[in-house]
Design a protein that fits this description.
By secondary structure, this protein is an alpha/beta fold. The protein folds into four domains: 157 residues, Glycogen Phosphorylase B (Rossmann fold, 3-Layer(aba) Sandwich); 174 residues, 3-Layer(aba) Sandwich (Rossmann fold), CATH 3.40.50; 148 residues, Rossmann fold; 88 residues, no CATH class. 32% of the residues lie in helices and 19% in strands. The strands form six sheets. Strands 1, 2, 3, 4, 5, 6, 7, 8 and 9 form a nine-stranded mixed beta sheet that branches. The protein has a seven-stranded mixed beta sheet with strand order 23-22-28-29-30-27-31. The longest helix is centred in the last third of the chain and has 26 residues.
Length: 755
Amino acid sequence: MSIPTYSAPRIGARPALICFSHLRWDSVFQRPQQLMARFARERDVYVFEEPEAGDAAFLRRRTCPHTGVHIATPVLPEDAPVDERRRLLDALLAEVGPASAWYYTPMARAFSAHAPWRAAAFDCMDDLARFRFAPPDMAAREAELLASVDVAFTGGASLHAARRNRHHNIHCLPSGVDLAHFMTARDALDEPADQASLAHPILGYFGVIDERLDMALLAELAARRPDWTIVMVGPVAKLAPDELPAAANIRWLGARDYRELPAFLAHWDVALMPFALNEATRFISPTKAPEYLAGGKRVVSTRIVDVERRFAGMAAVTIADDAAGFVDACEAAMRRQDAADFTEVDDLLATISWEGIHHRMATLLDEAEAEQLPKPAMIRGSTLTDDLVVGAGFAGSVIAERLARAGRRVTVIDRRPHIAGNAHDELDEAGILVHRYGPHIFHTNSDMVLSYLSRFTAWRPYEHRVLARVGASLLPMPINRTTLNRVFGVSLGSEAEAEAFLRRLARPVDTVASARDFVIGSVGPHLYEMFFRGYSLKQWGVDPALLDASVTARVPARTTTDDRYFLDRHQCMPANGYTRMFENILDHDNITVLTATDYRSVATERVGRTVFTGPIDAFYDWRLGPLPYRSLVFEHSTVDAEFVQPVATINYPGLETPYTRSTEFKHLTGQRHRRTSICRERSSAEGEPYYPVPAEANRLLYRRYRELGDAERSVTFLGRLGTYQYMNMDQVVAQALRTADRLLADAPTVAAAAE
């Protein structure tokens, strides 16, 4: 895709994303809304809707109060030419600046193909050309769009199989589920008034009601079981009133707010997916099944290919072929009470959150934008910059500041659209300051590190506390004397008593070779099973018996009642947030910062030295094999309450919960707000690398990569990923300061000496 040259985003700028949708933003909240709501956390998102009829041509604007997404609705006379939509789009682009495009409808290409997009993506949810009333040129428009975009996605495996040979960069990402939202249906929610009066059993459906549903099946199901109530929640589209079965026990309740859906779902006896088997459903991958299952409801579906594949072998999902089969399946579902059926369901649901899907899409869009960006002129030729720093997190920013302060001209690039790396924080849609990549709590025993960072931020005193959810109890973590007293029902009154008690619990091993050995040798098997085994399994994806002892040695047991998570002399938080601190660190005339810029787009340019803070194996294109990392998936949500947790972080060590921990950010930041923001975390084997996996085989592979790095005369590897070791923030800062001193000693400065 050819685009004109333009400036890269400046520090702190939010890139724009224009989404072309054939759906109304206020329709049933599904894939476009879920994803755009998440993109709006890091970008200025504008949904360019299908036009409405009006007497004059203008763009009606509003902002969704729940997500911060901007809605742009063209209002046009019915006979307005396509040029009018192009003109309104151009006016929007003139306002927002360089933007990327995100297509849900190929028909939008007719008025948007001319725009100088930073990158373009097509999220192909359905084979729209097969839908009722589809424009006759829909298939041709889709082919043109696929040929022009930089990255494409499909909403299901069947659709991906049909499209995979039509684009070089197409990815299958089936729709996910808003777990935090729909799992509330497992609680005792108040039933909506217009459903509360209906007789049970209630069989329910929510979603768009259109030609994809089998109306004949619904009519026959209602006729076979007049004692059952069938509830249909959702807007009716493209269907005439007489196409809807008029049985007395079928209730058409109309469109409802997304926030109301769990309240309907909570009181259903069975959830229905009565899709017709026709051209419109040949490639669909419905979002309904994960949402129903998250709400704890058994599902009966027609034989949709992607549903069969995705939920094969799960007792909570039954496939039926006709009305008689639906009756039998619904009866069996209502009889079956085995809660164990939802264990495997919850394991699957934990892997298909919208947060994870958005993270993958956002990464691919970032990469597409980086590919399209012209190589920055300021790093072309060794005369224009002395050093290239790859990564604008702690390691990269600190060393860039030190080099720049010494008079060297430094270019800092980061493939993400922001600075501050994983410490990046920002205001969410409710105006609450959140850590986008999970909680970051600053603590250190180093006066030097604290003194250095204090040049760029004031501090808020903060001592971190963590509770572990064990059954119905919240217990202090790390294990301390209070934990022991509550778990074992004892009254240990001194450190000596607690130490003696722990010795009785412990099962020492001759050689501490693993994390399991360390914990059992310190606190015994009971506490190991209660607090460590499940958490470590979820966090690292392997049994603690296969992990280094260092993994659990970081959270030792205590004999005191001190419930602080860290015991460092200095514990505090940047008063105005981490991102503001990073802006101050990088605010130097000798530093140029380019975000949304991939290293490979500038890797061939000549610079004096490169400091690489990304994964060392990626630098070498994984030539020796990939180094294992653990990734994280974050699920952010805003709650209408001042606080919902007694402390900032709650750990979930049990395997019955897919999350490892949840964090409430207002405890960390001290912000006052009538609402609060929660982040739940899950670990994943795929995605952005966060944690090097501590195991001997991995260290041996890293050493081979380090040998390659040691041979590089002009490249320095730095940080957690560049040196493949787990480090706290203060340790990364200290490493960057030491490395800067060494580099400056090796290369004379071109201006003033360092302070």
